[in-house]
Amino acid sequence: MRPAKSNIVALLSLANPRWPIACRAALSLGIPLLLSWLINGELSAGLVATLGSFTSLYASDRPYRNRALVLAGIAITFAAAVTAGVAVQGLPHAAVPLVVGIAMLASFFSASLKIGPPGAYMIVLACAAATAMPVTSLPLSHVFLLILAGGAISWLTHMAGALIAPRGPERAALVNAANAIAHLLATADEPAREIARHSAALALHEMWIALVNRQPRDVPGDGTITTLRALGLELHLIFARCNCSRDETAEQDRVRQIASLACTQTTLDTTMSRLPLGQLRAVERIARDARFGTRAWNIALRVGIAVAIAGSLGEMLGLTRAYWAMAAATLVLHQGLNLQASLRRSIDRTVGTLVGIGLAALVLVVHPTGLSLIATLMALQFIVELLVVRKYAFAVIFVTAIALTIATGGHAIKNPETLLIARGVDTLVGCAVGLLVCAASNIGGRTRSSLAAMLSLIACMRPVLGYLQTATVTSDEALRSRQSLQDEAFSVMIALDVHPEIESVVMRAQELAYLISGAAWLVQMREIEPARIQCTGLQRTDTILAAILTDPPATLDESFSIELARAAESIEAWLDDDTRRYSS
Do 186 and 325 share a domain, yes or no? Predict the structure, then answer.
């Protein structure tokens, strides 16, 4: 029987709606404009400060203590990047190297720290736009302070919710995970179930990031956070049980109860087990990704090359606003997508940018002033925040309109078609360069990178299997191994060019990873107690994986998928044998 999911969906919509976040973003942009209009009678200073208001587009779902630090860092970054862009206005040959450096740094840290949308793009766009902003009459110190003031206003509006619901983001993360697991439990079709399993695992991962990683390390959690962690442990255990053949009706009811408790409960009597490690801390991630060849490093390198080429082409072709081409190149590459996805993104962004240019031209032709211009920009910012997470391609339309309006100082234009053509050419140049760099970096490497990612995932499975055989899954070493397995299971979807001929292999490998991870959870929570003599299935699985690593295949073909299926069948048989006590 399919459960009624309306309660879970309702709780999810209440826990994490976008419109309050969009309202905060609109206020963050409107307040500096309004202050400028009230104090100076005009908006030039306020328009400069609005570049700092883009801080409001970041970290909207993070716990408040962590959000405070991230937003402060983003605000300072915007202030420094824009000030640097203004500083090189009199040095035309310095603009491209500056934007290249900013783009590489922003892309690296965004990828390494998982800053989230809009990532490096807005920082690069702000810096590049600043190289052509009409603010030469302002001292650099004033520019820096204006941008920082815009960021400070964004910080205050984004932190205001802490006064009403100080643990709201953590509760929302738990409800999101409950919603994903409820969907998994209600899904019977096997292909759809694998997708639901992956979504549930991602939601649980994000939940633990909110409940563990984004909490102060040396500060004990209060009663609410302890309760949410206990509910999270139970939720993760239910996810682990999904790998076994059981009646899931009771599980569905309990998931709904957990979602309800997440929204209301402040204390709960419970015995805590070892918490998962979640993801690495910020300093640890930066240290890990600073090595040559890591994903964050490769993203930064690709973005740097593309921005340098786009900027140089812009100067050679005499483009009036070469910064737009550099921003477009960043937009295509800063998320580290494969060629196929980058092509789709490039098309989406080109169309979105062209529509956004048309919208900006309309705004500048109508030429709203004073309060009407403030209201227009606030409305655009509101729409951006509504769309930026789930419909980023549409959000680019309104980001483009805001950026061009700010970059022109809100002045009227007589020939909007000239603006449309010029910015359209810039966008096409930037997107084309981004695609060429993406294609060049993928030539001859797709199969190798796909196989390497798959073998890396398999290599992470074996240590966890070893800890399962000795029932030592909660030691520090075991938790680190489980964390690595979890990270690889998620990243394999990013690292692989998922084409139809290898999609079945990817899904089979993820199924095996979730089986092993789920078994570790069952052992941790004393659902099963394996002994060495009962671990024939685990040993068989380990033997199959060891053989794959010893003599890896040349391609990810059907025979590889069959071997993974054999490994999964062995561990499934072990799970069925050792969990009869629970089933009975």
Answer: no
Start-end of H helices in 367-471:
370-387, 392-407, 416-442, 446-470
Task: Please tell me the distance from the alpha carbon of residue 231 to that of residue 237, in angstroms, as a whole number.
Answer: 10
Residue 403 belongs to domain spanning: 6-163+291-442
Length of the chain: 584
SS3 of 313, please? helix
Question: Distance between CA atoms of 296 and 338, rounded to whole angstroms?
Answer: 14
Q: How would you classify residue 291: left for phi > 0, otherwise alpha for psi between -120 and 50, otherwise beta?
A: beta
Domain count, the chain: 3
Does the structure show a pLDDT above 70 at 15?
Answer: no
Measure the CA angle with vertex 370, ends 161 and 398; round to 5°. 60
Structural tokens at position 80: 């420094």
Name the pLDDT band for 248 (thresholds 50, 70, 90).
low
The DSSP 8-state label assigned to residue 332 in this structure reads: H
**Which one of 379, 414, 442 terminates a domain?**
442
Cβ partners under 8 Å of residue 356, min gap 6: 396, 397, 398, 399, 400, 401, 404
pLDDT in tens, 365-405: 787 888 888 999 999 989 888 886 667 668 888 888 887 78
| Predicted structure pTM score | 0.78
Tell whether 219 and 155 lie within a shared domain.
no
| CA angle in degrees (0–180, nearest 5) for 31-330-67 | 45
Please provide the DSSP assignment of 70-130 as one string: HHHHHHHHHHHHHHHHHHTTT-GGGHHHHHHHHHHHHHHHHHHHT--TTTHHHHHHHHHHH
Residues 573, 479 share a domain: yes
Tell whether 270 is covered by a domain.
no
Q: Within a domain: residue 283?
A: no
546-550: long-range contacts (C-beta < 8 A, 24 or more apart)? 546/462, 548/455, 548/458, 549/455, 549/458, 549/459, 549/462
Instruction: Verify that 246 and 327 share a domain, yes or no.
Output: no
How far is residue 145's CA from residue 127's CA, in Å, rounded to a whole number? 15
Neighbours of 296 (CB within 10 A): 22
Residues 251 and 313 in one domain: no
Sequence-ordered list of residues with C-beta below 8 angstroms from that of 237, at least 6 positions apart, any chain: 521, 522, 525, 527
CA distance 148 to 49: 7
Chain segment 307-328, per-residue pLDDT in tens: 999 988 888 887 766 777 888 8
What is residue 149's predicted lDDT score, i.e. its pLDDT?
Answer: 94
Tokens 């090595």 belong to residue: 291
Q: Take residue 561 and report the two structure tokens written for it.
A: 């998928």
Task: Tell me, yes or no, whether 573 lies in a domain.
Answer: yes
The answer to whether residues 15 and 139 belong to one domain is yes
* Same structural domain, 235 and 296: no
